[in-house]
Amino acid sequence: MTNEEKITHIRTAAMEEARAEANAIIKQHEDALRSVFEQHQIEARRQSETRVRAESVTAKQQLNMAMSKAQLELKREMGKIQTELKTELFEEVQLKLLAFMRTEEYKEVLIRYIEKAAQFASGMAMTIYINPSDADKKTYLEERTGMTLTISKVDFIGGVRAVVPEKNVLVDYAFKGALENEYQKFRFRGGVKGE
């Protein structure tokens, strides 16, 4: 082999070795870039999923807050309407009660109340009161029951009250207290979960 052939051979071998090293470096660099890119994709996906979860949680919280606010407003409105209806209902009940108080049946109810009060007192001294609006019925009631009645200075709408001093007891068959008690106890049934 001549010198020139040797040089060519060495040059060719050196070039192949240089190319092989360059290709190895390029391959190593490509692998490193691919790995960095894959890591970047994984991190970007993770951040994206985290952001989506966080935004989902925020959206759910906002929805829950809006629903709670709407439910609270609905309950307030429902309570207001129920109070109005309850007031109207008891105004109507009071009108019907006043109409009832003009009937013969009401006189019979008063007689039963007076007799119950007398039975409770068991012969002890007592004062039986009738409502001022029933003053026109006093004589009739006294004749029917044989009891002495007193017209109250306090309006209790209707009915009878009796005081038994020995027992320190008020026998209360007054309509006013009964109406107030029913008004306080009255609740609308139905609506949301039977409220």
UniProtKB/TrEMBL annotation:
Keyword Nucleotide-binding belongs to the record: no
Pfam entry (one): vATP-synt_E
GO cellular component: proton-transporting two-sector ATPase complex, catalytic domain
Homology family: Belongs to the V-ATPase E subunit family.
Protein name: V-type ATP synthase subunit E
Keyword Transport applies: yes
Organism per entry: Dorea longicatena
Signal peptide: none
GO MF annotation: an example: proton-transporting ATPase activity, rotational mechanism
Alphabetized Gene3D superfamilies for the sequence: ATP synthase, E subunit, C-terminal (3.30.2320.30)
Keywords from the named record: Ion transport, Transport
